[in-house]
What does this fold into?
Amino acid sequence: MESKYKHLYNQLQAQIEKREYKAGDKLPSEGDLMELYGASRDTVRKALDLLVQDGFIRKAKGKPAVVLDKNKFNFPVSEIASFKEIYRFSDLKPKTYVENLEIVKNDPKLMEALQIGPQDEAFVLERVREIEGEKIIIDKDYFSRKVVDNLPLRAAQDSVYEYLEHEVGLKIGFAMKEITVQMAGDEDRRLLDMKNYDMIVVVKSYTYLEDSTLFQFTESRHRPDKFKFVDFARRKL
It folds into this structure.
């Protein structure tokens, strides 16, 4: 059963993504939210903290929460979310272009990243993401065929995670992520609308099933002006 604060979070998130609350708008106060949704103060605060964590709002003590500008790509550091899920309520109308989908083996980079042997096969999926008419992200996904035996083009064009979870029945558990900034390469300049930027934000992710089986390695390359990540941190005493 969904927790009360997560239910409230989902309601407020949907309103923000549908632009019912626009960038710069103030959310109702904690007291007003308690009255509007019949929720406790603890529930409201937990929901708002989660919205801060996921980059939807900015919140300061004693002041109303303010909705942040979503024109930048908010990378979900603390969760695993597909590109389709991130923009499911958005009116930005993102597009996906599949550049490559093939099966490879005996690739040293993939053998190390996916912890597979020279005879083990892996899917290579390369996609370009376009938002508001600009190509700003390259996603390179690599899947071990020991776990993902089939990867149809229709899933690559829509949502791989939706296919793996709902059709294949995989239970995706957790991911380890690394974020760096690098000089843009020839491929970045060829596939992305780089403008005058010469740097690229690179996010590498290792994704595991619930049983701790590594099945995916991702290298996601972002134009820097359209990338940001927001995380929620609490001081440990």
